Amino acid sequence: MRRLAAFGGVVVLALAAVGAGWAMLTSNGTTIHACMNASNGNLRIANECREGELPISWPGTSLTLRSAYSEHTSVPPGQFRFANAICPTGTFVIGGGYATEDVSNAVLVPTNSYPVGMGDGRQAWYVVMRNLGPEEEAFWVWAQCGRSS
């Protein structure tokens, strides 16, 4: 029986929305200011950054978050496969990661995991996995997407 594996990849948000749920963050001005931890990518809403954080900002007074997911992607033994979790139109990718299906036998190794732009203008989180095991294994990708207003 297959079981959900541990999450891997980059977790860019400390304040991620669960599932396809929405979360709302607000700012007092016309620009949302945040700080990204340079070592682990965690993001926090703040006007001033701490040591080891990089300042980022985007126009708007609030940020709406939503998760996007790829289809499950099967990887044959010794092969590579990729998947994209594509953010909805009008949103931008903030972060992402991946999950494997089999905890006890998971032998999928990520070779790439980063944000990309799609040909239609939408943004996505892209992951490439290699299967080092003797059997087909599956994974999926998730993206944390934002919309400012």
Write out key terms for the chains shown:
mainly beta, elongated, disordered N terminus, 3-stranded antiparallel sheet, single chain, 149 residues
Folded structure, characterized:
The protein has about 150 residues and is mostly beta strands. The protein folds into two domains: about 40 residues, no CATH class; about 80 residues. About 0% of the residues lie in helices and about 55% in strands. It contains no helices and twelve strands. Strands 1, 2, 6, 7, 9 and 12 form a six-stranded antiparallel beta sheet that branches. Strand 10 and strand 11 form a beta hairpin.
Topology:
Blueprint: E1 7-8, E2 23-26, E3 31-37, E4 43-45, E5 53-59, E6 62-69, E7 73-75, E8 80-86, E9 92-100, E10 108-117, E11 123-131, E12 137-148
Antiparallel strand pairs: 1-9, 2-6, 3-4, 3-5, 6-12, 7-12, 8-11, 9-12, 10-11
Shape category: elongated
Helix run count = 0
Average pLDDT for all residues: 79
What share of the residues does DSSP label as strand, in percent? over 45%
Model regions low in confidence, pLDDT < 50 over at least 5 residues: 1-27
The total of beta strands comes to 12
Cα(first) to Cα(last) distance is 44 Å
Q: What is the element string, with H for helices and E for strands?
A: EEEEEEEEEEEE
Q: Percent of residues in helical segments? A: under 10%
Overview in brief:
This protein has 149 residues and is mainly β.
